[in-house]
Structures are given as structure tokens and as C-alpha cells.
Design brief:
By secondary structure, the chain is mainly alpha-helical. It contains five helices and no strands. The protein has one domain.
Length: about 140
Amino acid sequence: MKKIVITILCLLPVTSFAQNPMGMSDEDMQKMMQQMQEAQACMEKIDQSELDRLEKKADAFEAEMRSLCASGKRDAAQDRAMVYMKEVVNSPVVQQAKRCGEKMQGMMQGMMQGMNQQGSLMTEDKDYTSMHVCDSY
């Protein structure tokens, strides 16, 4: 179910754009549809049980952060958050989702170029070093 929801959410901007391609050629539309199918196929390959495991781990992590932050253990919470984020970022399921996202990003950039616009689609990595995990709880 989650895969379907994620796929639909990823494709919503594409469907509204496809209704009004703003001058895209048939070839561009064909390419966009092929990229959309590739991205969808990629999303379908994500291991649902691993995704569920990560979700449970995230719930436990959030509870741990709330506890550490509430008890004034900000440094311990920050250290644990950094370790947790490295684990998540390096997990195979997140790496696969990232690859699928890159396929979608390539498609969206192609659409933007088709409309003669420039813009980044969340390609920049955010620097979290000046932020503290307890400030969000």
C-alpha cells in the first residue's frame, strides 16, 4: 500500500503536466512516459518488509530522542541522531529509493527544460551541522 501511495504522490505533478504539456513534442512526451514507467518499476522493487522495519526503527528512534531531549541529554541525543542518520542513509532500501528518486528527478528536469525554465529539484544536500535534534522536539 505504501508503494502505491508513494508512487501516486511522486506522479501527481507529472499527471497535471501531462494534461498540458506546454509545447512538448511527441518524442519528449514518449521519453517522459518511459522515464515514468522506469521510475515506477524501480519503486516496485523496494523491499516492503525492509521499509516496514525502517519505519518501526524510526518510531523507536523518535521515542528515544524525545526521552533524551526531555531529560536534558542534548549531547547524547545529537550523537545518537548522527549515528542513526548514517545508518538510515546507508541502508539498502534508502539507497534504492534514492536511485528511484533520481530517475524521477531526471524526468522532472527534462520537463523543466522542455518549458525553457531553469531550477533545481532538491539536488542540494542540506547541511545539518548547525542544527540540533532536540530543537525539533
